[in-house]
User: Fold Amidohydrolase from Xanthocytophaga agilis.
Amino acid sequence: MRFYSLIFPFYVWLVTCQLTHAQKSSGTNSKLKSQAIQDIQAKHDAYKKIALQIWGYAEVGYKEKESSALLQKTLADNGFKVEAGVAEIPTAFVATYGSGKPVIGILAEFDALPGLAQDSVPEKKPIAGKNAGHGCGHHLFGTASVATSIELKQLIEQKKFTGTIKVFGTPAEEGGSGKVYMVRAGLFNDVDAVIHWHPGAANAVSMGSSLSNISAKFRFTGLSAHAAASPERGRSALDGVEAMDNMVNMMREHIPSATRIHYVITSGGKAPNVVPDFAEVYYYVRHPNREVVREVFERVVKAANGAAMGTETKVEYEITGGVYEMLSNNVLADVMYKNLNTVGGVAYTAKEVEFAKKLQTSFTYTVPPVDQAAKVEPLTEDKEGMGGSTDVADVSWTVPTIGLSTATWVPGTPAHSWQAVACGGTDIGAKGMIVAAKTMALTAIDLFTTPALLQKAKDEFAKARGSNFQYTPLVGNRKPALNYRD
Assistant:
C-alpha cells in the first residue's frame, strides 16, 4: 500500500504533463492550420492561373513538357531544390525542402487525356485544333499539390516545425504508370508518409482499394495484297486482331466476375481494298487482386498467340503499364477526414449554380442536387475496390499513403468526360482545388507535429502489408513507355 501511495502522485503528474503537452500541441496545431487555410486562400487567383495554364497545355502522358516545367519553376521560385528527369522519365521530378525527419511526400499529377478537347462552357464544344483535354483534372491535381507544399515549406522556414517536404512530379498516370517507375527507382524509400488527392464530383476521403491493372498493346503483322484481285496472297493483320478480340470476349464467361477487360483497335488498316499488313489493339485487364490480373493477362496473351496462328500472322505485345491495387490506411484516413470537415466543401455563386444546372441537363441519368458540392461525404470503406485504377497504388505498398477527392466538377459529372474538362476550366474547378490544397496541408501539419500519429500509421501499414512482402512491379524490368500515346 505504501508503494502505491508513493507512486500515485508521480502517475498523476505524468498524466497531467501528457495532457498539457497534448493540449498545447492541439492549440499550436489549430493556429498553424488557421494560418495555412488563410495563406492558401489568399493565393487562390495565383494558383488558379497556374492550373488554367496547364489546362490549356493539355499534354498527354510522358509528353507533359510545359506542364511539368511550370510546376518545377513554381517550386524552384519558392525555394525548393528540384531534381528533374528522375526514374528515366524526362517530365518526372522530385522537389525537396527542409531536412531531417519526418519526410512527407506530396504527389503531383499533370497529364491530360487524348480526344477530350473541350471549352469551359456547359455544352459540348470541342476546341478547334486541339485533341487532348484534362478530363481527369490533373491540371488541378498538380497545382493543388504544389500549393500545399509551398505552404508547408513556409511553415518549416518559419520554424513552426521541422522535417522535409518532397513533391513528386508524377507523369502519365493515365495508363503510363509513371509512379511505378519512380517507386521502382527507390525515390520513396526515405519517405514516412505520402499525401495525394484527386479531382471529382464530391468531397470525400479515399478509403478502401482500387483495381489492379495491366495494359498492353498487341501488334499483328501480316502480308498486304489486293483485296479483290489477289486476296489469297494476303494475310490480314486485322483478322488477327479481330480473332483475338473474339476469343477474349468468349473468355469473359470463364474469368472471375470482378474482372474488367477493355480494348480499342488503334490501327486496323488504311483502305478496304488493301489487305492490312499491320494492326494494333490496346488492352486493359483489371481486377481487385493483382495476382488475378497476372493470370487473366496471360490468358489474353494466349488468345493473341492463338489468333496469330489461326490467321497466319505474327503478333508481339508491349506492356505499357501495370499497377497494384490500393493499400488503404485507416489511421491516415481518420486524420484527413477530420481536416476535410474543418475545411468544408465548395460553395457555388449564383452564376456557378446556373452553369452547374445547365451542365447537368447533358446527363441522361439522375444527378445529385447542385448543393451536394458543399457537403462532405461520410467516411466509408470500399472493400471491393473503386471502379478505376491508379499508379498511386504502387506508392501505397511502399509507404503509408492517404488521399481525398474534392468537388472540382459539378455533382453527377463522370471522370473522363467533356463535362469534367469544362468544369476544370472554370472557378468551380479552382474552388475544389483549393479545398484539396487546404486539406492536404492540414493533414501534413498533423503528421509533422505528432510523431505518435505517424508511428501509428506506420504500424498499421506494416501489419497490412505483411512481413514477407516484396515489391515486384507489374511492368517488370521494362523502361518507361515514353511513347505509349503515339
About this structure: The chain has 13 helices and eleven strands. Confidence is low (pLDDT under 50) at residues 14-24. The CA atoms of residues 256 and 339 lie 38 Å apart. The longest strand covers residues 212-221.
